[in-house]
Amino acid sequence: MRSLIGTAAAILLLGLAGIARAQDARELVRLPDPMQEHMLANMRDHLVTLNEIIRNVADGKFDEAAKFAEQRLGMSSLGLHGAAHMAPFMPQPMQDIGTSMHRAASRLAIVLQDTSVSPTLDTMRDVNRALHEVTTTCTACHAGYRVR
Q1: Is residue 30 helix, strand or coil?
Q2: Are the C-beta atoms of residues 70 and 101 closer than 8 Å to each other?
Q3: pLDDT tens for residues 5-15?
Q4: Upper half-sphere CA count for residue 140 (Cβ side, 13 Å)
Q5: Torsion-angle region of 60 (φ positive above 0: left; ψ -120 to 50: alpha; else: beta)
Q6: Per residue in 117-132, is it b (16+ CB within 10 Å) or e — as a string?
Q7: Tens of pLDDT along 12-54?
Q8: Is 81 helix (H, G, I), strand (E, B) or coil?
Q9: For residue 101, which phi and psi values (nearest 5 degrees)?
Q10: How many CB atoms lie within 10 A of CB 146?
């Protein structure tokens, strides 16, 4: 009986995934396979970096969080992520969202540095707003685009 329920659940999930793919209205951005893998690796690194930033903020290590924000997400990270060779494969609005994310991350780094000098309730709100600005750009890009 348990295996029957598990099998039914798997079939249901696969069916729902197929429906979701069929109704996916996001713009498809076709990339050569190596570029697609590179982009996906960058996005996974962005997620790991956001997690490290949040951990450091929770531990009160604002300068460390600022370093992660700038070096791995901010404008200083463009070379690390190969942005110049990736951009020509992306539609201009997608490029703009990416640039907005990197700029927002650089602003987050500044807010984190300011907070390290004077951690108050107001500066913590500023940190959360700045972090939200970064994740908003991530969400916008993922809501508008998919890659293959």
Answers
A1: coil
A2: no
A3: 555 555 555 55
A4: 15
A5: left
A6: eeeeeebeebbeebbe
A7: 555 555 555 668 999 999 999 999 999 999 999 999 999 999 9
A8: coil
A9: -65, -45
A10: 13
